[in-house]
Amino acid sequence: MTNLFAISTTDTIIGWVLGVVIIVQLVVVGCLSARLIKRRKSAGNQTSAQEKSFSSISTRSFVTVVILLGVIILLSGLISFVLPQGSFQRDEQGTIIPGTYVQGEIEGIPFWRVLTAPVRVFGSSDALTIIMISIFLLVMSGVFNVMDKTGGVSVFVRKLVAKCGKRRIPVICVATLIFMTFGSFFGMFEELVTLLPIMVVVMLSMGFDTMMGLGVCMLAACFGFSAAITNPFSVGLASQFAGISVIDGIWLRIVLFVCVYAIVVGFLLLHIRRISKDPTKSPSFDVDRDKLAHLNLDAKEDSPQNKKIFLTYSIFLSIQLVLLVLIAAIRAISDYAIPILAASFLIGGLTSGLCVAKPKKVFDWFFRGGVLSMLPAILLIAMASSVKLILSESNVLDTIMNFVIVKLDTIDSPFVIVLMLYALILFLQVFIGSASAKIFLLLPIVLPISQALGISPTLVILTYCIADGFTDMILPTNPVLLIGLSMVNVSYGKWVKWTWWLQLLMLVFTVCVLLFASVISY
């Protein structure tokens, strides 16, 4: 049988040269497209702040992430030259069959596969998900740009802030709790990003910054997803594999949720204290000045047109909130959340825009101002998703899993076993973002071994949940993080600088939680 992965030294050299050339071309094309979009937003005597789309990607942010993802992609290809191929047998559902691992030889993946992965990923098993996420992002950008240009954002936020008054801190605490609750109980994360632009504007209107909007919405939803209480995509599915009830061991997961909530709120309040003393210390200070310049929050709000705008977008946003609740409550439609929300936002957003502005302007704002400004993000999503494709084709993921699993049999300490499992899931998290996909990949093997070593299924599930989600907010291979940062024009570098110590704190805290769980034989 011909080995598809066999390559010569010449092919390797040519592949690396082509790789450098292609990555340079991607960076150049991205820079040119970003600059073109920026130029097209300026017309006549209007300032750039007035014409800039609310959701846009800066050239510097784009180039930084492209280079970072390019390095990760090349490293993913290099792994196949170090580790041997190997594979487990799988059943019809794709679940690993324990005891079926077969190891091959070290044969590097052809570099043309590495270089073309961001394109070939659209023909992989993840293609539909990537396409839907990309469409979702473009629709969201277009709709919120229409809402912004028609005055809907400023009118709606003025009303909201007027009702909240000076109760800024309670608003932060309650909003964070709501987003964390949706993530922890219903497994909602990607869906809640739809509310991110609104939350950012609300935070700006209350005297905070864009980072607070990201923290209250996206960060809280992600941390809630990981501090899972009944999350059907992690706790629910894992409990089903383990043959136990979702209620088993729930008391410690509730304690974890409360502690994580306290940490997130404390992190946000510390940031508020810092920027209250010196607003220039905000990572998004420059971006926020541009956003505030065209929000026009001081305009009169009692005109008939403003009342019409407020009523129109109130109905639109209320429908989206009801839809989010239905998706959370009805498991049958939760798997189709992204396409449902994309269609709802597209139809509802354009209809709302047409009710308050001329059709020509609405479609111009949607496509030119919104959709075009987000096109570079599609490349980022494709590059992030291609890392998993490369490792799957190189057949080394099963090799890494088998190595860790074999080591588990030689260790007597339950805590060390749990830490090794934690480390394995963290590693897989870099390449496989889906919580359910990692469950199908890992738990069928780990659960029998852990039970034989005296580790309860509830501790395995707790370890899985903790390792699965928190790092989503710092890994550049997570498409949802790239989408959120792109929508509010915050660079990946600034985000990492803002959250790195929180991630370090969560790592130390979660290890302590696992140590406590191991000691009490949870």
Write a structural description:
With 522 residues, this protein is mainly alpha-helical. It is 73% helix and 1% strand. The protein has 22 helices and two strands. The protein has helices at residues 9-40, 48-51, 59-79, 111-120, 127-149, 152-164, 168-186, 196-205, 210-226, 232-242, 250-277, 285-295, 304-329, 331-334, 337-356, 359-394, 397-408, 414-431, 435-452, 457-469, 479-487, 492-519, and strands spanning 86-87, 102-103. The termini are far apart. Residues 1-23, 25-29 and 32-51 have low confidence and may be disordered.
How would the blueprint of this fold be written?
Blueprint: H1 9-40, H2 48-51, H3 59-79, E1 86-87, E2 102-103, H4 111-120, H5 127-149, H6 152-164, H7 168-186, H8 196-205, H9 210-226, H10 232-242, H11 250-277, H12 285-295, H13 304-329, H14 331-334, H15 337-356, H16 359-394, H17 397-408, H18 414-431, H19 435-452, H20 457-469, H21 479-487, H22 492-519
Characterize this entry briefly.
The protein is an all-alpha fold and 522 residues long.
Q: What is the helix/strand order?
A: HHHEEHHHHHHHHHHHHHHHHHHH
Tell me the total number of β-strands.
Answer: 2
- What is the residue-mean pLDDT, rounded to a whole number? 80
**Structural class estimated from helices and strands:** mainly alpha
Backbone CA Rg = 24 Å
How many alpha or pi helices?
A: 22
Q: Any low-confidence stretches, pLDDT <50, length ≥5?
A: 1-23, 25-29, 32-51
Question: Distance N terminus to C terminus?
Answer: 50 Å
**Percent of residues in β-strands:** under 5%
What share of the residues lie within helices? over 70%
* Biggest sheet features: 2 strands, antiparallel
C-alpha geometry: globular
How are the strands of the biggest sheet laid out side by side?
1-2
